[in-house]
Design a protein that fits this description.
single chain; alpha/beta; Rossmann fold; six-stranded parallel beta sheet; 5 helices; about 30% helix
Length: about 180
């Protein structure tokens, strides 16, 4: 079984650095303000989401490939709010969304899969924009695909996709990675 894991922040959604800085909200980053619901209202990366939805629908009933959301949240008082907001975002933006395809964790992604599901193998493919997540995923046995999103850059360590590519090109590249 091939497992395609998509990160949300900076991959499925547009990364907004202003959410994580203290310039607004009286010195508190907006994502730490209770009831701000910033994760429920993030803008989607349209080309990436078209590609995601195409893959999600195509492999929905395929026993050989699963397409999932794997996102992380900070531990703390807003953990439940952030989880519900990200879940709600998925319900709004993923066609025929199934809760069983949503994994929201408060530990590093590679640890979450290893600790709660199974040991990572080359068949576990993470699509993420954050180099630390990609590096740790590969070190633990998985395959990484770097999502270039306009604020990060390409490298030679991983297969790359770009949120500015046509959805068809994103789908083609990911299918090559999963061997389809």
């Amino acid at each position: 079984m091939k497992n395609l894991w998509f990160d949300m922040d900076g991959v499925m959604t547009v990364y907004d650095i202003a959410l994580y800085t203290t310039e607004k909200a009286g010195g508190t980053p907006p994502f730490l303000v209770p009831r701000s619901h910033v994760f429920a209202t993030l803008a989607e990366n349209p080309n990436l989401m078209k590609a995601f939805n195409e893959l999600y629908q195509e492999y929905r009933d395929d026993p050989k490939v699963s397409v999932n959301v794997l996102t992380s949240i900070p531990v703390g008082l807003l953990q439940a709010e952030h989880t519900l907001d990200k879940f709600e975002w998925c319900r709004k933006h993923i066609e025929n969304f199934s809760p069983e395809d949503f994994y929201c964790v408060s530990v590093p992604k590679h640890d979450a899969v290893i600790d709660f599901l199974w040991p990572l193998t080359k068949n576990d493919i993470l699509v993420d924009d954050y180099p630390k997540n990609l590096t740790n995923w590969v070190r633990r046995g998985g395959t990484a695909v770097k999502c270039v999103n306009g604020i990060n850059s390409y490298n030679d360590l991983y297969t790359c996709i770009d949120t500015r590519w046509d959805p068809e090109e994103i789908v083609k590249t990911l299918k090559e990675v999963i061997g389809q």
